[in-house]
Specification:
- The protein is built from 13 helices and nine strands.
- With 336 residues, it is an alpha/beta fold.
- The protein folds into two domains: 157 residues, 3-Layer(aba) Sandwich (Rossmann fold), CATH 3.40.50.300; 119 residues, no CATH class.
- The strands form two sheets. The chain has a five-stranded parallel sheet with strand order 2-3-1-4-5. The chain has a four-stranded parallel sheet with strand order 7-8-6-9.
- α6 packs across α7 and α12 crosses α13.
- The radius of gyration is 29 Å and the shape is elongated.
Length: 336
């Protein structure tokens, strides 16, 4: 259920009356204009407020609050899970003192800390008074889905009793009814994948364009030093002729123009880049649809110094203008 938010107002303060001498020394029109300017200058300027967003996540245990928190964390939010309600006021003060650090924040307030409704109501009132408009999102799911999730994770329900999980879920629904009424949005997560949950949540809060971009990290490496463990996609480029065996090119890295020309001048290299580009055109939208916010593409050659670097730089150049993505390159073996 949506609840109306309070509207912050500003009050203009009038300037002090001018002295008689000052009034006599100016024309009535100039006096009026001057008084109007001073009155505008003396208006109470709104206090500086921390920019960004505050999202308050609540809802049933097993409804997906942890996953939702991770999704906001991927956007650069500072996420605080299971914040004790007694520390809520301290957090609000901290956010005012460090607005850049806590620009975007997601708080998880749920039954683990007791009834979260009073804390959420107080947080909304205080934040709105300071110019912020927190978004309260309540997550829920069907009893059958929640029971299944607890069975899969083997976690205890926070209200677990000898009556079983289903009885605990029923009790939690009752105790969180007031919190649900305070929510700006109620999200039913029963049939949602991670990607669908991400889409649903990010449609509810303002998202900066740069936060929505898929981060593509291109990493180069040498097979003799091992695979990069963080890689999502790994390409072996040792099929290309190796500049290492050209005496003038051996001491130079793939960042050097002559090495780049040697590597990219090979027809197989150009065709390889075309095929990788086509594959990414096919898969990037699907990765995003599945909720992926970061993709690590690794290119490896023998030492990670010539072929992989030259190809990675060219691949990054081809991808950098692609809408909805941000591309970075890291050459792991360059300083080895």
């Amino acid at each position: 259920m949506s609840v109306p938010r309070s509207t912050a107002s500003t009050t203009a303060h009038r300037g002090r009356p001018r002295s008689a001498g000052a009034a006599a020394s100016s024309t009535p029109a100039a006096s009026a204009a001057s008084a109007h300017s001073r009155a505008r200058a003396r208006r109470a300027a709104p206090p500086e407020q921390p920019a960004g967003q505050v999202v308050i996540l609540s809802g049933l245990s097993g409804a997906g609050k942890s996953q939702a928190s991770k999704l906001f964390e991927d956007l650069g939010y500072v996420c605080i899970d299971n914040l004790p309600t007694d520390l809520l006021d301290a957090f609000i003060s901290l956010r005012e003192e460090s607005p850049e650090r806590y620009r975007d924040t997601a708080l998880v307030l749920d039954i683990r800390g007791g009834d979260p409704a009073p804390a959420i109501a107080r947080a909304k009132a205080v934040l709105e008074k300071h110019g912020a408009e927190p978004t309260v999102i309540f997550l829920e799911a069907s009893d059958a889905v929640i029971v299944s999730r607890f069975a899969e994770t083997r976690h205890r329900h926070p209200l677990s009793s000898q009556s079983g999980v289903q009885a605990s879920i029923a009790e939690e629904r009752t105790r969180l009814s007031a919190t649900r009424e305070l929510a700006d949005h109620v999200v039913e997560t029963s049939g949602l994948s991670i990607g669908q949950l991400k889409e649903r949540l990010f449609n509810l809060v303002p998202i900066r364009p740069e936060s929505e971009a898929l981060q593509i990290e291109i990493v180069t490496f040498g097979f003799k030093f091992g695979l990069p463990l963080e890689a999502d996609l790994v390409f072996d480029v040792r099929f290309l002729n190796n500049p290492y065996w050209v005496p003038d090119l051996k001491p130079l890295s793939g960042l050097h123009a002559s090495v780049r020309e040697y590597v990219l001048g090979q027809p197989r290299a150009r065709r390889f880049l075309e095929l990788v580009g086509e594959m990414l055109e096919l898969t990037l939208p699907a990765f995003r649809a599945e909720g992926k916010s970061r993709l690590v593409v690794a290119l490896g050659c023998t030492g990670g110094y010539h072929r992989s670097i030259a190809l990675a730089e060219e691949l990054a150049r081809r991808l950098k203008d692609r809408e909805g993505t941000e591309v970075s390159v890291f050459h792991r073996e360059l300083e080895r």
